[in-house]
Every structure is written in structure tokens, then in C-alpha cells.
């Protein structure tokens, strides 16, 4: 079981600094976005707690202005042995999300935490955006990452060495461009993996992934590019206080799944499907991006 860190937004909105390589972002009417995003966030937290998922909520602050603070999984990840890694972020205004107020809440939850700070690599224009850039299979000590401007290969390998994880690096393409985050096209769970293999064009990369899934006895739940574009890859398996798994995905993602896909996923765990339309449209992130595990 892990607690989930979530950041309650105060200034959520469309971020042009991230939109340059996040094809999922679209600017909506910003006068309504803040209130609608806040309502979606609060309903999401309520839904998780209803399923006995432990959630730690940190309040965002107006200053410095951080429109994407609702997505903490990109700048921090937690690991067994009271360890946390801070990551170098692509967009300058996302680097400001590392706020004292959030660190205070983390220290209250994990007072003896050991920090590994990779954020200075921003000065060398080297980026690795946490569990957006990487999808972890913690049980089998694997880390998956697709190449993109936000995922530096050397930093990825450095994290894998630190965690003693096997690195699996591959190319994933959508509309002729690298997919900016691995967790857009892939979700790793205890007994299955949800993945858009249509985006993995290189046969060697695809074979590497399939061989690894087979070795680890993971059932493959394939999704299409169209489903991925509706956030069906941005799922996350979470565990309740009594260690029962649930799979989180947005309502939009759930709605684009086929009945067979839904049946397969439900056979492994209940599904939690919050409505996140405003957050997805303006922020370009979905259910998984809003959760950072405190392991």
C-alpha cells in the first residue's frame, strides 16, 4: 500500500510553455477553467477516498504561479527505503512547483526521507520528468521509457542504476512526433500492462517489450492510437488501505474502451473513473499524472 500525494490547484490553466511538445493540450475559456478544474480535483479525491485509497492533499500557493502544479508525478518520485528523487523539468515554470509548502507536507509524512536531487541538470538542458517520462514496474525492478525531448537517456539510465532497475528504452511515435511522456501510452499493473503498441513502429523495440512482458507474465491489454489520444494509456493501479488494487482512469478514457477491454480490466481490479475533462483539455494530463505515490 502507498499513500498518494495530490496537489490541490489554485491557479490551474493552459500552460504555453508545455504546449510546445504536448499535443494533448488545448486552450479553453480560461475564466472558467480554474473553478472547473478545482471541482474536478475535489471530486477525484473524494472518489479515491471512497475506495479506501489514502490521499495526502497539499494546497498549491498563488506565488510563484504554477499552472501545472496539479501534476506532481513529473517532478518527484518516492521509493522504498525512505528515498525520493527530484527531477529536472522541461518548462521553466514547472520547475517552480518544487515549493516549500509541498516539501513540508512530504516531510510530515516521511520525516526521514533521503533526497536525490537531479534538478540541477536543468542548467544543462537535460530533462527527465519523473513517472511521466518513466513507467516503473516496481515488483520486477523494470523501468520503461520512450525517447522524447523530456526524457534524457543518460538521466534515465542513471535513475535505473540508482534503483537497480532494468532499463527498457524505446521509440514511440504519434502523428510523426515522439510521444512526450511514456505514461501517455503505457500503464504497468501487477498482472497486466495497458499499452499502445501501434505507436511503437520499430520491430526490435516492439519485440523487446513483448518479450519482457511475456517474461514477467503480464497480460497485454492493447489500446489503439485513437484510444491513447483520449487518455486511455494514462491509467494507474493504486492500492487501498487493505492492499486491494484498483485501476484509476478518467471517464473520458473509460468511455473509449471497448466492452471487452473493460471486462478484462475489471477481472483484475475495480475501476475508478473520475471526470477530468477540464484538466485533460487544458493541462494535457490525466488521472495518472495527478498522483505521486509516497512509498
Notes on the structure:
- By secondary structure, the chain is an alpha/beta fold.
- The chain has a single domain (about 5-295), classed as L-arginine/glycine Amidinotransferase, Chain A, CATH 3.75.10.
- It is built from 11 helices and 17 strands.
- The strands form 6 sheets. Strands 2-1-17 form a 3-stranded mixed beta sheet, with helices on both faces.
- Strand 11 and strand 12 (about 190-195) form a beta hairpin.
- Helix 2 (about 30-50) packs across helix 11.
- The protein is globular, with a radius of gyration of 18 Å.
- The termini are close together.
Largest sheet: 3 strands, mixed
Oligomeric state of this protein: single chain
Q: What is the SS-derived class? A: alpha/beta
How much helical structure, as a percent, in the residues? 25-40%
Amino acid at each position: 500500500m502507498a499513500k498518494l500525494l495530490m496537489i490541490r490547484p489554485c491557479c490551474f490553466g493552459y500552460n504555453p510553455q508545455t504546449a510546445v511538445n504536448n499535443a494533448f493540450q488545448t486552450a479553453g475559456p480560461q475564466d472558467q477553467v480554474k473553478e472547473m478544474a478545482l471541482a474536478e480535483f475535489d471530486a477525484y479525491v473524494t472518489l479515491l477516498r471512497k475506495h479506501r485509497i489514502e490521499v495526502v492533499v497539499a494546497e498549491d500557493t498563488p506565488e510563484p504561479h504554477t499552472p501545472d502544479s496539479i501534476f506532481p508525478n513529473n517532478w518527484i518520485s518516492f521509493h522504498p527505503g525512505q528515498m525520493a528523487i527530484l527531477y529536472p523539468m522541461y518548462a521553466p515554470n514547472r520547475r517552480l512547483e518544487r515549493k516549500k509548502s509541498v516539501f513540508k507536507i512530504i516531510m510530515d509524512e516521511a520525516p526521514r526521507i533521503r533526497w536525490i536531487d537531479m534538478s540541477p541538470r536543468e542548467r544543462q538542458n537535460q530533462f527527465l520528468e519523473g513517472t511521466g517520462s518513466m513507467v516503473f514496474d516496481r515488483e520486477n525492478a523494470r523501468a520503461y521509457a520512450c525517447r522524447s525531448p523530456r526524457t534524457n537517456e543518460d538521466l534515465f539510465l542513471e535513475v535505473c542504476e540508482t534503483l537497480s532497475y532494468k532499463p527498457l528504452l524505446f521509440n514511440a511515435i504519434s502523428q510523426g512526433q515522439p510521444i512526450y511522456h511514456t505514461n501517455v501510452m503505457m500503464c504497468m499493473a501487477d498482472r497486466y500492462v495497458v499499452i499502445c503498441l501501434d505507436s511503437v513502429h520499430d520491430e526490435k523495440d516492439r519485440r523487446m517489450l513483448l518479450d519482457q512482458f511475456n517474461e514477467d507474465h503480464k497480460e497485454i491489454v492493447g489500446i489503439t492510437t485513437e484510444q491513447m489520444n483520449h487518455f486511455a494509456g494514462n491509467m494507474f493501479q493504486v492500492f487501498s488501505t487493505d492492499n486491494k488494487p484498483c485501476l484509476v482512469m478518467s471517464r473520458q478514457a473509460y468511455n473509449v474502451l471497448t466492452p471487452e477491454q473493460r471486462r478484462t480490466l475489471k477481472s483484475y481490479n475495480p475501476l475508478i473513473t473520475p471526470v477530468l475533462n477540464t484538466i485533460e483539455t487544458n493541462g494535457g494530463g490525466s488521472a495518472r499524472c495527478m498522483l505521486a505515490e509516497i512509498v
